[in-house]
Write a structure and sequence with these properties.
177 residues; alpha+beta; 2 domains; 7 helices; 58% helix; 16% strand
Length: 177
């Protein structure tokens, strides 16, 4: 998918966003949408809507959107439309990897300052040599204190609860000493 979008000389991000829009629209379609006839009909409806939008001051269909339309129709034709969200997410993940963007998520026990967030991002960039870090944040009231950081499959648990469990295991393993 990435190579197709890039090969057309289009804006890859625009193509992915347009495909997300089509996927959201497809979820609201009534009945089963699969097969060659449904693919042709859906593609015609999309093109008709885009033509009307262009006639009323919208822009022409970009190469990336053209690729997205063709891919969307292919997913319908092959009865794989239910997998479109997963394909989009995997495409985005591969694109981020190619661009050196690392997704990370952090859970805090309490709200933290922008300085702390910046320091976490900087440390991730430094250790991974990433061009950019996409950090998502979430408050987790189940944490007593500290934070839990996920970078890909790696989890760094610096929460107070985790430290207490480690201390408990250590004391239990040494006869309480």
């Amino acid at each position: 998918m990435i190579n197709s979008l890039a090969g057309d000389g289009g804006d890859i991000d625009d193509g992915i966003e347009f495909l997300k829009l089509l996927a959201a629209w497809a979820k609201n379609l009534p009945g089963d949408v699969s097969g060659s006839y449904a693919a042709r009909k859906t593609e015609l409806l999309i093109r008709e809507a885009l033509t009307k939008a262009a006639a009323s001051g919208g822009s022409e269909v970009s190469p990336a959107r053209e690729t997205s339309i063709r891919f969307f129709a292919l997913m319908i034709k092959k009865n794989n439309i239910s997998h479109l969200d997963a394909v989009i997410e995997e495409t985005k993940r591969l694109l981020d990897k190619k661009r050196g963007i690392i997704p990370a998520s952090v859970e805090y026990a309490f709200p933290v300052s922008e300085d702390i967030k910046s320091r976490i991002e900087a440390e991730i960039k430094k250790r991974s040599a990433a061009a950019r870090v996409d950090l998502t944040e979430q408050l987790n009231t189940g944490l007593i204190g500290g934070f839990r950081l996920r970078i890909g499959d790696e989890i760094i648990d610096a929460s107070v609860r985790s430290q207490l469990h480690k201390l408990e295991a250590c004391l239990a393993g040494n006869g309480g000493y």
